[in-house]
Amino acid sequence: MGKVVLVTGVARQLGGRFVRRIQRDPRVDRVIAVDAVPPEHHIGGADFVQADIRQPAIARVLAEHSVDTVVHMDVTGTPLGSGSRTSVKETNVIGTMQLLGACQKSPTVKRLVVKSSTNVYGSAPRDPAVFTETTSPKSLPSGGFAKDTVEVEGYVRGFARRRPDVAVCVLRFANILGPSADSPLASYFSLPVLPTVFGYDPRLQFVHESDVIELLLLASDEPRRGTLNSGTFNIAGDGVLLLSQCARRLGRPTLPLLLPALSWAGTAVRTLGVTDFSPEQLRLLTHGRVVATHQMRETLGYHPKYTTAETFADFAHSRGPGLLPPEALAGAVDRIAALPLLSGGHPTQSAN
């Protein structure tokens, strides 16, 4: 008999996409899709169970379906629909506690995959240039989604100690982007004008939605020969981008502000939909964050299909041109450079 996989957070686009993908795996017999609200998108032939993981009833779901693999994707920074930040935190933290408690009692569960984030490292002025999986943060996140991920991983480590027979894989994803990205950073990049911290140009990494799906699939199965998919792994596309480069590629002007003014602006943009524009999000836009991914390649055995730059390009294409499209801006520079006043009466070469 094939595996029985339970997936949480299927009402979100990423969760629904993973459910559809894992059903194509011939080694999977059944997929149990769980969320507190019915998904608006198609989930294929998966069995949908409407259940709130914050409630003890999730233990009954595991027992009734003899689940052997749990993929916990309901750790996120944005609410569904009209939900609040409080409900998001409860789902992230209390929901994870209830789910792990249910897994601990279940004799059939043999593998647990948790979608985490590189937010666990925080962002501070004295951070190392590159974080590895064993690097301790210089300053623990004090709030928002970043603090949630720290608490979630703490509970997962406790579960792993209590159930050493269960293979546990924690995937720390960098900022997830793509055409259907739903995250505070994606909302920030969708603003017509990007507020930035005056004097700072942070380094950022991204991972594409498609790579996220394939990595979750890889982690939910038995490891391939010569690899190991238990443990904690940093996940990001190759390379980095500066925030200023991101703004130019989006065609969106930036508005440099002093940090106190940006904190006030953060409160303002929360009303525009950036629901987790928390102090930790501001720190990311000030100091940035870069993680090492050699364990992803050497131990997990995965090489992302998209680099950081390619991921951002796909995201930017899905958002359409901004107020300053790169092509239009280049054309304006060309026309200015060709003005007789600037060229001494002679045509100049086109400027790129």
What does this structure look like?
With 352 residues, the protein is of the alpha/beta class. It is 39% helix and 17% strand. It is built from 13 helices and 13 strands. The strands form 4 sheets. A 7-stranded parallel β-sheet has the order 3-2-1-4-5-6-11, with helices on both faces. α3 links the parallel β4 and β5. α1 crosses α6, α2 (58-65) crosses α3 (85-105) and α3 (85-105) packs parallel to α4 (144-162). The longest helix is centred in the N-terminal third of the chain and has 21 residues, at 85-105. It is globular and about 80 Å long. It starts with a strand and ends in a 9-residue tail after the last helix. The mean pLDDT is 88.
List the helices and strands and how they pair.
Layout: E1 3-8, H1 13-22, E2 28-35, E3 47-50, H2 58-65, E4 69-72, H3 85-105, E5 111-117, H4 144-162, E6 167-173, E7 175-177, H5 184-189, E8 194-197, E9 203-204, E10 206-208, H6 209-219, E11 231-235, E12 241-242, H7 243-250, E13 254-257, H8 259-270, H9 279-287, H10 294-298, H11 308-319, H12 326-337, H13 340-343
Parallel strand pairs: 1-2, 1-4, 2-3, 4-5, 5-6, 6-11, 7-10, 8-13
Antiparallel strand pairs: 9-12
Helix pairs in contact: 1-6, 2-3, 3-4
Descriptive tags:
seven-stranded parallel beta sheet; 352 residues
Strand content: 15-25%
Strand element count: 13
End-to-end Cα distance, whole Å, is 60 Å
Low-confidence stretches: none
Strand order of the largest sheet: 3-2-1-4-5-6-11
Described by the principal axes of the CA atoms, the overall outline is: globular
Alpha carbon gyration radius: 22 Å
N-to-C SSE string, H for helix and E for strand: EHEEHEHEHEEHEEEHEEHEHHHHHH
Rounded average pLDDT: 88
- Count of DSSP H/I helices: 13
Judged by helices, strands and strand pairing, the structural class is alpha/beta
Biggest pleated sheet: 7 strands, parallel
Helix content: 25-40%
